[in-house]
Amino acid sequence: MKLIVHAIGVLMVSGAMSLAIAPILSLAQPAMSNFSGLPGVMLTPEQAEQLKQLDAQTRSHLQGMLTPTQLTQLECALKSADGISRAEIVALNLSPAQQVELMQILMSTQQQATDVLTPDQIETVRRNLPFHP
Length: 133
What we know:
The protein has one domain. 50% of the residues lie in helices and 11% in strands.
């Protein structure tokens, strides 16, 4: 399964740490102009390819920083159509170093994803993102 990144939103990872992405990642079907992970957003073929590459890069980074158990937990949590909740992130039991690394990966991914999308597409994503306290 491919993962693509949702940009914009807020997700609390631990008491004091927040990430500027929610629901972080969402399952998507590859090679479609309207990814299920970006409801209501029509992508050009170029945008779809760029997001697929970003997805692969992000997945590789996550595989390198999470334990196999944490990665499995994350993938299970991502199967929800509504994304991932704060409680599911907390349940990963990330070390402080992993929290920092995850924040860096996701902030970078968010920036790269927003660079791919137009302002109108970003606004559509913002409107369609569920909030997960």
